[in-house]
Amino acid sequence: MAKDSAVLKSLRDQKGQFVSGEEISKKLKVSRSAVWKEIQVLKNLGYEIGAGPHLGYRLLGIPDRMLPDELSAGIKTKFIGRQIISYEETRSTNDAVFHLGEEGLKEGVCVFAEHQTQGRGRLGRAWVSPKYKNILFSVLLRPDLSPAGVSKVTLMAAVSVVKTLRLLTGRRFHIKWPNDVLFHEKKLCGILTEMSSEPDRVNFIVVGIGINVNADPGELVKGATSLKEITGTWQSRIEISQTLLETFESDYLQLKKGEFEALAKKWEEFSSTSGKRVTATVLGRKIHGTAVGIDKEGALWIRTDSGLQEKILAGDVQHEK
Amino acid sequence: MAKDSAVLKSLRDQKGQFVSGEEISKKLKVSRSAVWKEIQVLKNLGYEIGAGPHLGYRLLGIPDRMLPDELSAGIKTKFIGRQIISYEETRSTNDAVFHLGEEGLKEGVCVFAEHQTQGRGRLGRAWVSPKYKNILFSVLLRPDLSPAGVSKVTLMAAVSVVKTLRLLTGRRFHIKWPNDVLFHEKKLCGILTEMSSEPDRVNFIVVGIGINVNADPGELVKGATSLKEITGTWQSRIEISQTLLETFESDYLQLKKGEFEALAKKWEEFSSTSGKRVTATVLGRKIHGTAVGIDKEGALWIRTDSGLQEKILAGDVQHEK
Q: Do A147 and B151 touch (CB under 8 A)?
């Protein structure tokens, strides 16, 4: 998709007021026909651009598309999402970022997609999302962690998502261990963390986040919900993405400083798992009990019905009714 | 490089005796000129093929190259190295196999190379090896392990290498924790394990093994040695590779059955670290003490000078003089 457009920036700077083609062409030192061509490109991307004789052009509306220009406009991050690639369609944003990691790109680069042909969730499950409706992106990280420490990043990402969604919608979203974001037990967001590593050293991590934003109930899988369904109105995917990237960066910097405990506390606050009756499935074995909470490594502790405490590092947890 | 050649197989079946071009052409149902062309291809690959009037062709010698045909000939494995790709030159065999892993190939596929342009060792260090002299290969594995369990595979690989080299040369090679193979404290072999994983599930593992075989002292980095230097004679890279793949498979099957303890015992037997005065460097911190041994997770335990026992999962260990 388009890289940052100087013409778009000129229009944006006018905040909806007219600017003449001549003025833009002088400012950017390009011909008036080059300006006209770029205006057509922007219109094709879905930008609403008004034109009046002797008045010039003005920006009336931006497209509901995850364009790098829109995602970058006004974002306050230092390194997360300062470099963005957007695809109409890709196999999976995690795969795309994984390849960028192998090519040695710096941490913070993000890949957004309108559609994934092989979207994945945890444990190899499919992640399905209708085109142009939801947020699908992945980010490259290069933290100084051992592979065992990587689950902290996953828990952190869930905290960042809940903070963002609570802030923007005022609704009470919860986290189901380890990293599903729920609203009244219906799934709104999934997070898939993958890494390339040696046994004792992480090369890089890819965090993929999928949030159901404007999907209609008929477009969602069973047990899922969307922000539109919850709030009753269309939501700006751009605004949510920008706030999320900013929150994510600030939480990630906290994690990098070694302050995971503050994040773990937030996680506990947002958790709908702690204190609940749960069934955990670990390598085919089912464990029934009450979730006690997470420890400083991000493991879930369960007090089983036989009175033992069990530590769950992997697997699935179901909340009992 | 060439895939399995039917003409080569016909020559090999004669065990050095002549076979006529006509006989080969009848057996393989191809023209005599096709047989002649294939003979030229084999000669170009370095095969020594004798030809006599009215006698036909016979195989006199195979090239000192890591060709899939040679590596596969007579190998007794079930899945390790049943599919082999050989490169004259590649960036790194680990990178090549990593990509095969991402493409979903089955475990056991191997990539060999005569030369790596960006060969790597542990912790991002360079691995340098002169062309056509040593063994450089990587293998794809898909064990049912958590990321924390992957160091077991690394330790196992070191055991497989030492078993193979002791068997073929009768010399006493040792392992320095976690996975360097030494001869009288000089490095002969390095192992680099890398993985693609979720925090709680391994997607796949790549084990890369580099063995200095016929490199001359002048071609080796400081502190390294080769089998040729140790034994005084040229060694067959093909024979070593085949024995190693067979040993590796049998050890890996043992690991998969959950019998790591037997491998750990072998590791202890081969270890030159256990019982030695060592300096471990962990995240920049130096720990001085006596290596006690490895535990069932593959961690090295050190009794420090202050009397504490420390568990080393990552980092570097130097044997003190």
A: no
